[in-house]
Each structure stands twice: as C-alpha cells, then as structure tokens.
C-alpha cells in the first residue's frame, strides 16, 4: 500500500528528530524561551536539510517572528554570551555551553537594480520567510519546541529527487538575491544535486545580474564550491550558464583552446580532469597536503589559464603555448586580487601555476644534484603541493607515456629524499653569512653584500655544501672578477677584511 503524504511527512520528521537527538535538550530549551515570550522559533535551512540527509551540520540557524531587540533580550537571559554584530540584518548570535546559535528575524530581503547589498525587510510569517530562501531543500523548518515539521514548498520531495528548485519563481528568487545563482552551483558540488531546468534557464538569462554582488561574497561561494567533494558539476554549471564569464572568465576561455598533446577535447576539459586528479591525491588529516586543500585546487583549475594568450600555430600544424606558465601566474594574481583573496593564498596559487611546468623542463635525462636543489628551493614550502599538481597534470591516454612520466617523477622524489638525507634542502643557505662576507671582502653593509650572498647561494645550489674555506676562495675570486669588470684600468684592490685571503 503506497505511503500517504501524511505518512511521508511523519517519517521525515522522525528521521530529522532522530538525527538531532544530541541537540534535543538545547532545541527544546531555546524554543520554550521564545514561546513563553509569545513568539515562534524554528530551526531552519541547512541544519534541517542535513538532518534529513543523515549528515551533521556545523550550523544551528533559527528564524523567529521576534524583532531583533526582543531576540537580544531573550538570548541575553538564555545564553552564556551573546552578540549583535548582525543586528542590522536581523541576526543575533549566542553561545550556551559548547553550542553557538544564530537567530534571525523573519526576512524578505531584495536587491535593488543598482545596489550591491540587499535591503533588509522583516517579515511576519514563517511561510513567507521560507519563500525567500534560495532552494526548497533549504526552505524546510522544525518549529520548536514541539519539533513540528514545516515544508510548504515541497522541499522534502525535492530532497528525495536530489533536485535544486526555488520555492517561488526562479526569476524572482535570483532577482532578489543574485548570489543564489552561485549557491545553486555550489550545492550541486556539495550535495551532488541537479539544478532544475527552469532554474538553470533563469541563471543563464540573468547571469549578468551577478555583477551587482560584491567580490567578497562571490569569493566565499567559489571557495565553498571548490572545497566540495566534487567541484566539477558546480564549475560546469557556472560555465554553461554564463556566470563564469562574470566571476572567473579565465575558465570558460579555456574552451577555445586545444591542448598541446592533442589528446583532450580542449584545455578546459583537461583542467577539470587535473582538478579531479589533484583532489584524489590530497592526503588524510595527518598528511603533508590534507584535503580539501584550497591552494592545490585553485592551482589545478587555473594552471593553464595562460594558454589563450600564448597560443601559437607552428609550421606543420602544431600548436605551442610557450611560457604560458608565466602568463598564467600573472593572470592568476590579477583574478584572485579581483576576487579579494588574501595575499598569502594568492601568492601561493600563482607560484604553483608558475612552477607547474618546471619538472618537464628538465627533460628525460637524469636529474643532477644542482637541478634537484633548485627545484626544492624554488618550490619552498609549496613542494608537496607541487608534487601533486605536477602528477595531476598528466592526463594523457597514452598508457606508456603516462607510466614513463610517473616513473620519472618517482625518481625525482627519490632523489629529493636522498639529498635531504645529506643536506638541509628545505633551507638552502650559503656556506658564509653576511657578516663573514663583509669581513672577508672588507666592505660595509650594502647592495654589494647582497650580490655576494646571491653568488654564494648559486654556488651552494650548483655544488652543494662546499665548506667555509672553499666558499671563501670562490668568493674572493668572484669579487676580483667583479672589480675588474667595474674598473677596466685593472686598478683593483685585494680584500682586506680577512686574516688570510686565498689567492684567486
């Protein structure tokens, strides 16, 4: 006998409540505080959705008909601490024991045509508040303290169908808050859901509307998408809808290019595969690159964005992308700055993009000690990420070639481990420091000391640890050559600072 709608709702409520059992005392207590004051309170959005999916939610979001001033009063009496930094938007936060909650007054926000910020309007009913939510799967609530399941827009059915549909007309929903279009792509990546056709059509028609949203809010959604278990569906939706043209134009631009190996449909497809392979190589919580790793994932999806600007058609029908890694690093920096990424993350991602071809530059020959030292030094703290990015960049279908590249990189990592056992590779420094340089050459602090230090650093990279005596001899010889080049008359003076000066 088929389930009735009532049976369906009852079972859903039971499943959600069972998942929320560890929080039931807290939910009942907080709900009772608001109802005793004559107000309604409901757990809403992500926590309800995740409970129905059998997932834990990091957030505890509530909605109420109480205005912010009243919410402040109630939470002050109930919690151990409270804060009202979001009061202008109707949101008040509180902590009780180990739990942090946010309670927001019923809302009905809208964006005006020329505004980057929503105009806050408080509502009067739970149903109206749920209508303004982004998708029906986030428009379900549990009214407290009775734990009454509220689902006026069919979120439960959409959850079962793994579909993202807006509670009202998508054109109205996305017009009220254009960032919801990016949230659709993010949830497709996070939850593995499909965005409803009418919502995709609205996203495509209204893509230009995303330009009124601040770069900071767009960046947050993009980060969440990239850190999802499977970012690919979300990125594909951004590109197919035209949203990527406004927020990450370098990505769809790759669809115009042909990969230099002629083994992939285009560089866009290659980049998505590299991202998937990089994610597969992320380590567990105790590994050198614990996933999800934003820097590695950004570098994977952006590593080839310099190709459109560097493409050249060669005689014989070939295609080249010379120095696309340098161009890509510049474009990466520019785009990440525009999206308001922090300076450190921007520098790390751009550096990985710049270095992603370094391994291939050494060819198939055996790596010299000097080459290994330079590879490790140039990568610095990004070495483990560079290992994973370089391995991920192999997407050839030629099994023999893939095996050869993997073996070559295995050999490189072995060489790095061997040299690390002999030298301090992670902090390669000259055999002489600045004070010793000044004493040996008899010069004061200044640019010449920096030049001398750089010479000794190159010597260290080329020949390894040579010891203080040999380093001094090489330094004196270099200094004599430098002075001779600066003074063609040959009237150079010998170093005067050291007690003993080896002859050049």
From TrEMBL:
Region Disordered: start-end pairs: 480-504
Origin organism lineage: Bacteria, Bacillati, Actinomycetota, Actinomycetes, Kineosporiales
InterPro entries: Bact_CCA-adding_enz_type3_sf, HD/PDEase_dom, HD_domain, HDIG_dom, NT_sf, PolA_pol_head_dom, PolyA_RNA-bd, tRNA_adenylyltransferase
Protein name: CCA tRNA nucleotidyltransferase
Source organism per UniProt: Kineosporia babensis
Protein keywords: Magnesium, Metal-binding, Nucleotide-binding, Nucleotidyltransferase, Transferase, tRNA processing
Any GO molecular function: nucleotide binding
Keyword Metal-binding: yes
Stored SUPFAM superfamilies: Nucleotidyltransferase, Poly A polymerase C-terminal region-like
Biological process according to GO: tRNA processing
Gene3D superfamilies on file: Beta Polymerase, domain 2, cca-adding enzyme, domain 2
Cofactor names: Mg(2+)
